[in-house]
């Protein structure tokens, strides 16, 4: 939907309103109410006879747009155009279970998940038609960018990753305002074309460029520029009056990182292996900041992909001397520790063990490495080894809360596991055999208990066969075999039509 002439600024505002529809949300009932005043304002905007068709088009678009965007939240009933005009309350289905078997492939991640994770419903509204708030009032919410306080900034929407490196190719949208004027004097949004420039080449006003240097990808900010960093005492008549302060609203759409990263991306795989160490460090600083930001947003799988990319660079690079090699090991230590933590967070302890072990090969006494190794071993049911690493970590950090809590949790779990083993052996082998050494499962006690419960339910049922997933590991199948034998059941494993079948069968039904 486009309008021209005097309706253009209002049309821009409508698009913004459509995507940022004002709602009131009751977090307990999960109900939302569209504020009809926005729709009244929209209707008034298109009150002109020739534009009434746009109003109906807009309502239809909004209805579809809401249903599309809210489909992830499972609306309990559809929203009609008539409902929108009246103002409508809609309810979100509470059974929004997105759970499915998740793919933990390191380099593959759901882009929709990333978009949802980055969604920020606290984004402050942009100025589109003009600024009716005094600049002095806006300045109170801003922070200085320069020591002299003549360039100020307010973040409207947080960005991701690292600040824009120097000599980056940057793509932005901006809107420029003068105080008290109803219309913007310069806007890439009205031209519907982003502005592309090389950061540091002097094409922008100094104040605007300095402000942009502090921004990140996807960030939306207001930048207030003093005349000293803008058009000066003379201004630029007739558009810019003398001594004019300029307010910019800038959105960083994307950037191609600094010189080191750009040059590195253009290299062949063989050239990358021979790249100077300084260039690798430049790539590290940019990529690691982005990975850390993804981690803070709990986007662990894309963070893992970023960390592993940098690990590959450092593992393949050749250090020119001992000093460079020490630096390389220091960077790898941080990356291995971060990867271990990421894998712990996505419940993949086996890979967490791999990276914690790599970290400890660089620094055997690193408290974080010892702690993360202990946590990972605990999750795999290796309680004795876990205790060993956690106790070593405690020697380095005796008062660290998370280490002490992990040790206490381990003690409770190990005691519960031993009690369960004694009870199981007593039940299976008789009280006189209780003192015999119990079978040592490689799987954690929780898994053994689950299989034990499943088999007990199977025995009490009329079913003759109980199937287990073909993806079970050998250590998991060992548990199934052991329990099947203990309960006098037959364990069967075979390939049928190219599919592996694992099951236990009641012996009376075997021919």
UniProtKB/TrEMBL annotation:
Protein's UniProt keywords contain Cell membrane: no
Endpoints of the signal sequence: none
GO CC annotation terms, alphabetical: cytoplasm
GO annotation (BP), single: spermatogenesis
Pfam families: FKBP_C, TPR_8
Gene Ontology MF term list: Hsp90 protein binding; peptidyl-prolyl cis-trans isomerase activity
UniProt similarity note: Belongs to the FKBP6 family.
Protein known as: peptidylprolyl isomerase
């Amino acid at each position: 939907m486009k309008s021209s002439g005097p309706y253009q600024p209002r049309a821009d505002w409508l698009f913004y309103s459509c995507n940022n529809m004002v709602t009131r949300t009751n977090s307990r009932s999960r109900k939302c109410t569209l504020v009809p005043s926005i729709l009244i304002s929209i209707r008034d905007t298109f009150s002109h006879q020739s534009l009434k068709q746009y109003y109906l088009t807009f309502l239809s678009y909004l209805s579809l747009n809401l249903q599309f965007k809210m489909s992830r939240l499972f609306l309990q009933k559809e929203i009609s155009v008539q409902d929108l005009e009246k103002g409508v309350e809609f309810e979100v289905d509470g059974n929004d279970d997105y759970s499915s078997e998740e793919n933990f492939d390191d380099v593959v991640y759901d882009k929709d998940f990333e978009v949802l994770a980055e969604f920020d419903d606290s984004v402050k509204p942009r100025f589109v038609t003009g600024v009716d708030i005094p600049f002095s009032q806006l300045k109170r919410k801003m922070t200085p960018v320069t020591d002299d306080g003549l360039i100020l900034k307010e973040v409207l929407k947080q960005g991701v990753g690292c600040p824009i490196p120097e000599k980056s190719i940057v793509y932005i949208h901006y809107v420029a305002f003068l105080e008290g004027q109803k219309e913007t004097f310069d806007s890439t949004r009205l031209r519907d074309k982003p502005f592309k420039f090389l950061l540091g080449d002097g094409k922008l006003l100094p104040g605007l460029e300095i402000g942009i240097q502090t921004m990140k990808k996807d960030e939306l900010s207001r930048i207030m520029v003093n005349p000293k960093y803008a058009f000066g005492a003379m201004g630029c008549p007739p558009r810019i009056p003398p001594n004019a302060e300029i307010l910019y609203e800038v959105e960083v759409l994307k950037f191609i990182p600094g010189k080191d990263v750009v040059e590195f991306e253009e290299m062949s795989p063989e050239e990358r292996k021979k790249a100077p160490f300084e260039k690798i460090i430049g790539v590290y600083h940019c990529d690691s900041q982005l990975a850390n930001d993804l981690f803070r947003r709990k986007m662990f799988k894309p963070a893992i992909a970023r960390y592993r990319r940098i690990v590959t660079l450092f593992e393949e690079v050749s250090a020119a001397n001992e000093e460079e090699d020490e630096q390389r090991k220091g960077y790898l230590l941080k990356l291995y520790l971060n990867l271990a933590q990421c894998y712990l967070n996505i419940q993949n302890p086996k890979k967490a063990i791999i990276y914690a072990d790599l970290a400890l090969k660089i620094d055997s006494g690193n408290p974080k490495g010892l702690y993360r190794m202990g946590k990972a071993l605990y999750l795999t049911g290796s309680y004795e080894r876990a205790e060993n690493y956690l106790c070593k970590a405690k020697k380095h950090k005796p008062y660290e809360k998370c280490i002490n809590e992990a040790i206490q949790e381990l003690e409770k779990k190990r005691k519960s596991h031993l009690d369960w083993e004694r009870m199981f052996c007593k039940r299976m082998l008789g009280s006189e055999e209780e003192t015999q050494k119990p079978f040592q499962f490689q799987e954690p006690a929780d898994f053994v208990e689950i299989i034990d419960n499943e088999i007990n339910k199977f025995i009490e049922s009329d079913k003759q066969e109980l199937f287990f997933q073909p993806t079970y590991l050998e250590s998991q199948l060992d548990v199934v075999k052991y329990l099947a034998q203990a309960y006098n059941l037959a364990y069967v494993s075979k390939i049928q039509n190219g599919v592996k079948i694992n099951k236990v069968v009641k012996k009376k039904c075997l021919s």
